[in-house]
Amino acid sequence: MAYPKIPLAQTVVQLCKLKGIKHIVISPGSRNAPLTIGFTNDDFFSCYSIVDERSAAFFALGIAQQTHEAAAIICTSGSAVLNYYPAVAEAYFSNIPMIVISADRPKHLVGIGDGQTINQKNVFENHILYSANLKLDLNDESRLPQDQELPIFKSIENKLERFLGLQQGIQSFNEEEINTALNLAKFKQGPVHINVPFDEPLYELVEALTISPKIKELETKPYKIDAAELNDCLDEWYIAKRKMILVGELKPNSIEKEVLDELVDDDGVIVFTETTSNIYHPNFFPSIDKIIAPLTDEEFKLLQPDILITLGGMIVSKKIKAFLRQYQPKQHWHVGEHQANDTFFCLTKHIETAPNQFFKEFLTRITHVAKSNYFEFWVNIKQHRNKKHIEYIKEIPLSDLKVFDRILKEIPAGSALQLGNSSTIRYAQLFNIKPSIDVFCNRGTSGIDGSTSTAIGYAVASKKQTTFITGDLSFFYDSNALWNNYIPNNFRIILINNNGGGIFRILPGHKNTANFDNYFETIHHLNGKQLCDMYGFDYDQASTETELAEVLKNFFSKSKMPKLLEVFTPRSLNDAILLEYFNFIK
What CA–CA distance (Å, rounded) separates 128 from 109? Predict the structure, then answer.
């Protein structure tokens, strides 16, 4: 096997291997050549070549999202690393493990006007779990600049490193930093940055490893729920007549069915779930906006909980946020291993354990509950809303709302569904999705910039058929996502094209002006056909209900190429149909 000659490159590659980091997404470059050589010559790693660093990072995010294990991204020095930032921020706020490995110039070449060089040290400072800034190897004197070629302070620094910074010390430092970064990515579930300086020559090979890095495990203690805190929770629970559980983004199968069944045994409990929560029960309340959007002030007071328990990550529904900020609960507990967001400005407890663990321990200790009609009252509201929802969908013409009703019914059971941001996720929240479908959306930063790349990365790592539903601006923004050689044939894209940013027509603002059309809605006349021709997708389109029904008959069947279905909807009617929907279902 061929290895990079540079010991630091060997160290990075071997420690990733020892830590089980299998998926490596590489963007081409020269400064990162030692890393590329090391990873691609070892069959342990699954390596992917993606030119666009922004797309590459979201692609890796999708892999990590599916595998629940860290994926690594590798790039050259300079602006390349900055293109990782949107995905790094998404991973940070979504608690997705990611290893960012950037090649860099040696420090004596930084800040002197050398090409393809920026200040890479701590470049992700505000959105990273850890930044490991490694040191250049010193065991090959031919790779050190001569003292006379350096400014005086650099010359002094160089001499000090020669005499005091022995290669063994530098090797130990680098191993410690890499171990720390990889451990934190795994156990804290988020992105870490390893900045790796290389001096030329970069392409030299050796036939055997010259280093044997030591693996260091992170010492962790299993979390135990504090008995006093648990008793406090029980005391509050016993007297509360209105207990609301709000579930944000969760991994599939995070909570056992037995726990879910026991939760709804209490008539004083209602469980609101978002599309990305990936938990289902007949007595839960999905489609939050459908329930609460039409409520009056008096009804909001009846819904106001005594205790609110939040689980999971980010909440999509703006309406539930507004409600709970105005009608605050007396107690807000967040149960979860990661950060507790004080979204409603009334957080009272953060129970730092997995929801499944907490409820298994908590529910077995409950001996009695206060009598309540909380669930009975709101389940009647839910049934009424669902009935009116069906009536309204039947009577409306083809529109974004009608399209979502049709396509969500056709997504195959047991498959995976990736959703774009903005209008896409909000429309999806109004519908019940088959319980066997795993649902994902980049809600950490809620950006439209990498949704397609994430969906493709997920599909590559998954054995399940994956469908991605997206709006037109999001799709065209991230069109480089299609520029890779790994997209599986069973991958499906449904592109809902309303010729602009439709969400801006729903939000408050002055519509139908030149300023609005150009700078908010951003009207265009693009379609996806040419991109499909270029990247090897089967393409079909629909502009009527009849055409949509016909295309969907075979859209999810086996094919020799991935498929894209573009559905054209009426830009100027979609917002009116959606806004009237909430009036109709009252």
Answer: 25
Token pair belonging to 494: 């449904």
Sheet (strand 243-247) strand order: 269-273, 243-247, 307-311, 331-335, 349-351
pLDDT tens string, the chain, 586 residues long: the values are 899 999 999 999 999 999 999 999 999 999 999 999 999 999 999 999 999 999 999 999 999 999 999 999 999 999 999 999 999 999 999 999 999 999 999 988 888 888 888 999 999 999 999 999 999 998 544 344 444 455 555 555 665 555 455 788 999 999 999 999 999 999 999 999 999 999 999 999 999 999 999 999 888 777 788 889 999 999 999 999 999 999 999 999 999 999 999 998 999 999 999 999 999 999 999 999 999 999 999 999 999 999 999 999 999 999 999 999 999 999 999 999 999 999 999 999 999 999 999 999 999 999 888 999 999 999 999 999 999 999 999 999 999 999 999 999 999 999 999 999 989 999 999 999 999 999 999 999 999 999 999 999 999 999 899 999 999 999 999 999 999 999 999 999 999 999 887 667 676 666 777 777 777 778 888 999 999 999 999 999 999 999 999 999 999 999 999 999 999 999 889 999 999 999 999 8
**Residue 428 · residue 404 · CB < 8 Å:** yes
> What is the 3 state secondary structure string of 521-582?
CCCCCCCCHHHHHHHCCEEEEECCHHHHHHHHCCCCCCCCCCEEEEEECCHHHHHHHHHHHH
Please name every residue paired with 45 in a beta bridge, in sequence order, or none if there are none: none
Q: Which domains does the chain have, with CATH numbers?
A: 3-206 (3.40.50.970), 227-379 (3.40.50.1220), 396-584 (3.40.50.970)
- The reported pTM is 0.93
Percentages (nearest 5) of helix, strand, coil residues in the chain? 40, 15, 40
> Is the previous residue joined to 201 through a cis bond, with omega within 30 degrees of 0?
yes
Alpha-carbon distances, residue 578 vs 394, 403, 495, 507, 574 (angstroms): 14, 12, 19, 11, 6
Output DSSP code: residue 36.
H
In the chain, the largest separation of any two C-alpha atoms, in whole Å, equals 85
Contacts of 312 (CB under 8 A, 6+ apart): 247, 248, 249, 250, 254, 276, 277, 336, 355
Q: How far apart are CA 548 and CA 397, in angstroms?
A: 13
Side-chain half-sphere CA neighbours of 509 within 13 A = 17
Q: Are residues 29 and 79 in contact, defined by beta-carbon separation less than 8 angstroms?
A: no
214-211-193 Cα angle (round to 5): 60
Are 278 and 440 contacting, i.e. CB atoms less than 8 angstroms apart?
Answer: no
Alpha helices in 148-286 (DSSP H): 152-164, 167-188, 227-239, 257-263
Encoded tokens for 45? 């790693």
Q: Which two tokens stand for residue 55?
A: 């797309």
Tokens of 378: 């709101």
